[in-house]
């Protein structure tokens, strides 16, 4: 894509965000202005992340498949006055291990020893890998609308990766939009989420980002988790689920309960994949209650 002038970019953004309610749009712009990206080279990879907040405890927000910390800005804003926080942008790395280890390095850079980890959807995959690779960095774990590794899905995506890298970029954008927008109903409460996704597609999506995002799902789906593999980790687990979520049908939700037998489970009745946007107060309230409940001490996850 040819370089876009600042005026042309401003016009495009105005068009993309025109249907977002003014108050939401202004809050989103303010969040961006107050939280400029931080960048660093870690190994051979360029990383970008946002961090801020105050408090004795820290939260690690792991974005969904959008891969940008701005996609969870409303959740961050809810907790920022009481917690330190960090949220990464996902760089083009092909494995979950590289992603998790890079995120641990970002915590080091910010002087955060341990955090409560919050991951929704794709971020829930990342969160489950992170707690297994770096359990000492995780105070407690919140996994929202995500499932366990799915070998059949991984095989299907691996087959698609034979031809996806060869698609013209406009077709990659089309494919990405079709998959992502399919999870977001055309309702007023999703206006900001949809607009931000359109911005990502129009201005920030890269071939490497798309392809490595799929490669990480294949990598995740080849992993094997067991109910006892967090034994000895003293943290607590909260599972947030929607009973109408097409990405996590009932068998997937039950698998998560089996994998985390000591977890607290909150099921949002009648809710789909984007409960956090559609049912925000109760969604954040469930997280708030979980964070405020004192840990009972060491116990199996």
- From N to C, what is the helix and strand string? HHEEEHEHEHEHHHHEHEHH
Biggest sheet, open or closed, and with what strands and sense?
A: 8 strands, mixed
Structural class call reads alpha/beta
| CATH class designation | Alpha Beta
What's the number of helices? 12
Mean pLDDT: 92
Question: Within the largest sheet, what's the order of strands?
Answer: 1-2-4-3-5-6-7-8
Named at the architecture level, the CATH assignment is 3-Layer(aba) Sandwich
Identify the CATH homologous superfamily: Alpha/Beta hydrolase fold, catalytic domain
Count of distinct strands: 8
For the record, the count of structural domains works out to 1
Whole-angstrom Rg: 19 Å
Shape: globular
> Uncertain regions: pLDDT < 50 for 5+ in a row?
none
- Beginning-to-end CA distance, first to last residue: 47 Å
Helix proportion of residues, in percent? 40-55%
CATH topology: Rossmann fold
Strand-residue fraction? 15-25%
Characteristic key phrases:
301 residues, alpha/beta, Rossmann fold, 8-stranded mixed β-sheet, 12 helices, 45% helix, globular
Question: Can you give a write-up of this model?
Answer:
With 301 residues, the protein is α/β, with parallel strands linked by helices. It has one domain (7-292): Rossmann fold. Helix content is 45%, strand content 16%. The protein is built from 12 helices and 8 strands. The protein has helices spanning 6-16, 22-34, 73-79, 96-109, 122-133, 151-160, 169-181, 191-204, 207-221, 250-259, 275-278, 280-292; strands at 38-42, 45-53, 58-62, 84-89, 115-120, 138-144, 237-242, 264-268. The chain has an 8-stranded mixed beta sheet, sandwiched between helices. α7 (169-181) packs antiparallel against α8. The mean pLDDT is 92.
């Amino acid at each position: 894509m040819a370089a876009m002038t600042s005026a042309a970019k401003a016009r495009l953004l105005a068009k993309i965000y025109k249907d977002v309610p003014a108050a939401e749009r202004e809050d989103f712009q303010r969040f961006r202005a107050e939280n400029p990206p931080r960048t660093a080279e870690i190994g051979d990879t360029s990383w970008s992340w946002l961090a801020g907040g105050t408090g004795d405890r820290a939260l690690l927000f792991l974005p969904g498949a959008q891969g940008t910390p701005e996609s969870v800005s409303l959740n961050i804003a809810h907790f920022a006055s009481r917690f330190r926080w960090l949220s990464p942008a996902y760089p083009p790395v092909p494995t979950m291990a590289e992603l998790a280890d890079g995120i641990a390095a970002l915590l080091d850079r910010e002087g955060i020893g341990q955090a409560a980890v919050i991951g929704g959807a794709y971020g829930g995959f990342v969160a489950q890998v992170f707690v297994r690779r770096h359990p000492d960095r995780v105070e407690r774990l919140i996994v929202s609308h995500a499932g366990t590794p799915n070998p059949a899905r991984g095989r299907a995506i691996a087959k698609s990766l034979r031809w996806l890298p060869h698609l013209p970029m406009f077709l990659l954008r089309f494919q990405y939009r079709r998959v992502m927008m399919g999870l977001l109903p055309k309702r007023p409460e999703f206006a900001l989420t949809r607009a931000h996704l359109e911005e990502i597609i129009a201005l920030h999506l890269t071939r490497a980002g798309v392809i490595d995002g799929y490669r990480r799902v294949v990598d995740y789906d080849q992993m094997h988790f067991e109910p006892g593999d967090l034994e000895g980790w003293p943290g607590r687990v909260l599972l947030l689920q929607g009973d109408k979520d097409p990405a996590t049908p009932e068998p997937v939700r039950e698998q998560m309960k089996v994998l985390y037998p000591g977890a607290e489970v909150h099921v949002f009745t009648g809710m789909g994949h984007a409960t956090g946007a559609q049912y925000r107060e109760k969604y954040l309230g469930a997280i708030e209650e979980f964070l405020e409940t004192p840990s009972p001490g060491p116990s199996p996850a």
